[in-house]
Amino acid sequence: MNRQEIDQLGEQIVGALIEVHRHLGPGLLESAYEVAFCHELTLRGLSFERQLQVPVEYKGVKLEAAFRLDVLVERTIIVELKAVAQISPIFESQIISHLKLLAKPLGYLANFHMKLMKDGIRRFANFPS
User: Fold this and answer.
1) Is residue 74 a contact partner of residue 46, using CB atoms and an 8 Å limit?
2) What total number of domains does the chain contain?
3) Which of 39, 54, 76, 90 has a C-alpha 20 to 30 A away from that of 96?
4) What is the value of pTM for the model shown?
């Protein structure tokens, strides 16, 4: 995928996040938003993997289940879903690490505990220089 295609896919993902929030609003558990978001991706014809366990290699040792992604869309974009009062810096650090470890170009951190969903979406890029 080239950068333009990745950005277009990102726009579809943001649209799906906003659509879920428009219908469900804030106040539910992350797991409910995840199911609804994945359903919205299906409606849009996008492939995804949920709760993907990702091993990490450290000096020749494979660390099983080193981390788990909420959603990987089209095997390209990472989406981490939250339903918290405030995004902690650790959540931002985690998505940046996930992007680097998996060499993915784009990630979104989406917090559904917001009055307006657009205020709860953070975009993280990992495009090569």
Assistant:
1) yes
2) 1
3) 39
4) 0.93
